[in-house]
Design a protein that fits this description.
heterodimer; A: 309 residues; alpha/beta; Rossmann fold; 2 domains; five-stranded parallel β-sheet; four-stranded parallel β-sheet; 12 helices; globular; B: 174 residues; three-stranded antiparallel β-sheet; 3 helices; 8 strands
Chain lengths: 309, 174
Amino acid sequence: MQLSTRHLLGIKELTPSDISLILSTAEQFKEVLQRPVKKVPSLRDVTIVNLFYENSTRTRFSFELAQKRLSADTLNFAASSSSAAKGETLLDTVNNILSMKVDMVVIRHSATGAPHFLAQHIPAAIINAGDGINEHPTQALLDAFSIQEKFGELKGRKVALIGDILHSRVAQSNIHLLNKMGAEVVVCGPPTLIPKYIQSAWNVTVSYNLKETLEWCEVANVLRIQLERQNQVLFSSLREYRLHYGINRELLDGLPKPVTIMHPGPINRGVELDSDVADSHQSIILQQVENGVAVRMAVLYLLSNRNIA
Amino acid sequence: MKTILNHTEYLTAVESLAQALLAKHPGLENTALVGVQQGGVVLGWDLVRVLRKEPGLKDLELGLLDITFYRDDFRTSILAPDRMNIPFSIEEKNVILIDDVLFTGRTIKAALDVLLDYGRPQRVELLVLADRKEHRQFPIQADYVGLTIPTTKDQKVKLVSDESGGQNLILRDS
């Protein structure tokens, strides 16, 4: 069993059997994380650098923990405290790090395509931890893992992606993954935050009505309003956004069946999700975080052998 | 391909392994059984079926142990892992590791590494159906052996199920 690719650049580049292999391997790693000793020696001769050109708590910790649980050696790089602040280019930075014999690079960057660029120029295995508004593949994989864990399978699931679809790499990766695995997808949000041709470009249905969307779906994956990427006014105020697209207890209690709530974090409490929804038994947000480590262990494990051919 | 044990002979071997185990650990007092994926799990379940007929053992369980993440040859090819499930504590227990064939000893060495990440057993013993004694690469010996078979290094010995689902031990020249 092998992945069809030597990098994880996006879900777009994966086959359905790649996705199944990652998810089934992650199940075994989830078991590892329940053991008294939550660590295996699989990657003890592998060195991994985490290049984070953009801020992150969850993803960076999750990758770092996954690497430590696999016994890999890790190096952490934060753009703000490195030579990137002195103007060194991405390629120079990476080549310098590689000359210290690094096998894998995990990269998050605000520029779309930064991981793809690295994959063309350097011999290490590249893992995309989020590139601009393009993809965030490990998030989509852990979302899928969490849905599968709760519902048994992905095929035929009704999943709604709600909120800022336009700026969301999480949404894009999720759409590709759910399409490939045979789930039905509705994207819901204000018209200004949904790309114009999304319905014809990808196999999704667009809805501007939150209540109808929630009545239809089994899982609502609620996305963060990306305050840092709003350089033009796409909705008039957070208060108005909350009024039309915020999910609250009253709304959920009025639905014919319970909907499972997911969120990639960090949550803007009281904007896209109210606290009593985010912290309720319907929410699997913290399970998503827990599953993230197992899924990233699976990705690192499955990509680790190609350099030592 | 040569059949070393047909299904009937296999069941007889399992029966006598069960008796040997009971002779050393009467009533399986403070003893836990753990099969190594995949052949050891098959053998383990057949052994458990026999042992469950003994008084007080009708709820006897089998732990499943997978060594994929602990292999020393892992980087030459990536293997998809099997299920790992040890549903009981092994702390201060006599653990019986079960495998179908003992060959180089590397699998058992890795299995011991896995086992110790689950706790500190009081004692670990090894039970195997077939011992290919002359090919050991590690100082590992079995405590309970079904049969010892002379083989050459390139041959393969494994458990395969026939059409009716019964196990046969076969030897293949590769």
